[in-house]
Prior knowledge:
Radius of gyration: 21 Å
Oligomer: single chain
Number of domains: 2
Helix content: 25-40%
Shape: globular
Number of strands: 12
Distance between the termini: 55 Å
Strand order of the largest sheet: 2-8-7-6-5-3-4
CATH architecture of the largest domain: 3-Layer(aba) Sandwich
CATH class of the largest domain: Alpha Beta
Largest sheet: 7 strands, mixed
Structural class: alpha/beta
Amino acid sequence: MPDSSVQPEPELGAFRNVPYMGVIFVVAEAVKRGFWNGHPEWSNLGQGQPEVGELDGAPPRIAHVDLEPGDHAYGPLEGTPELRASVAAHTNRLFRDGLTPYGAQHVSVAQGGRLALTRCMAALEGGPVGYQLPDYTAYEDMFNLHLDRIDPIGLRTREEDGFALTPAAFAAAAREHKLRAFIVSNPCNPTGVVLSGDTLRELIDIAKREQVTLILDEFYSHFIYTPDGEAGAGPVSGASFIEEPDTDPIILVDGLTKSFRYPGWRVGWVLGPPPMVEAMARTASSIDGGPSRIAQRAALAALQPAAADQETNALRVAFAAKRNLMLERLKAMGVRFAHESESTFYLWGCLDQLPAPLNDAMEFFWRALDRKVMTVPGKFFDVNPGSRRAPPSPYDQWMRFSFGPSMDNMVQGLDRLQALVDAERRG
């Protein structure tokens, strides 16, 4: 029996110790050293949001919203009918030419992507649920909240495959573990891998054949670059390969946070078969109470076709240029890449060729922090629900570098990292 004489730390009382994850840990440590968001003396090469100011070629930033009387009331748990219809139309226009269109009944809106995913996790019936490694840090705590009924199964992607999830590995895991669901970020945070074309189609076909609910976290869907670093032609989504939106067990998660550069609005959505979408919306009655009507009203303007296309086309051009410069600079420092990012605003690099102790990601992190540069050590992406796997992590020498900041701020950070590496090489 537990020792009833052992009491929690008085500062927490009855609360458990909740550790910071990934970027939040990085920011918390930087704040201790004087960082605040937008501080000109700091370079946040760890940030998980894109630059949010004016961008060459993009439409002006939406700076106000006109409310209607009904916007002051509670809204529907699944989002307003207007925004749900707008999200469906946006998806159909980009990905469903010649296919059965999505309707408002296929859409549920949430106050941000993490909340959309949290609802999704809460709605899962239980059993074995797969995920890839490495992947988005927040998945770990989402799983942790449901370990009483969900058995997380990690599928580790291979460096020799560029950390890409292969259809063969997915099919084998689905059969071996009798997976009920599988969650994967595509495009992938942190690796910048994007699964598209026949590969994405095959993954969806496997999910249907094996009766696995495939949850595609597509928040970086518009950050697409060619292998030689040019801006991609357009976004990538599983919506292009879903034949029956009423029944295919595929959940798509996206929003305005990344591709539209409005992270502070906290607008996300899911698309899927109406019964699944309704189940996720029902979880909101106890989790969050439904999304803000104000943010949803603003989102209608962001999704107007002309403005949406202008924004995302400009985004690809601007971020491709930053991607290319960061990749060139990090390679010159000695950072090694198994895959040169074709999406997101991240580079996933290995430090094993840097001089010790900079070949250890945590040591690199602390020393870069001393120079007011933030990075995210790879171990945070080794999603480990319930801490079932003991350290060390296979990603202890890997680092996620973000080209989310403005070009000038990014260059400032790269200059400081170069100075750090040069100083260590000189001894």
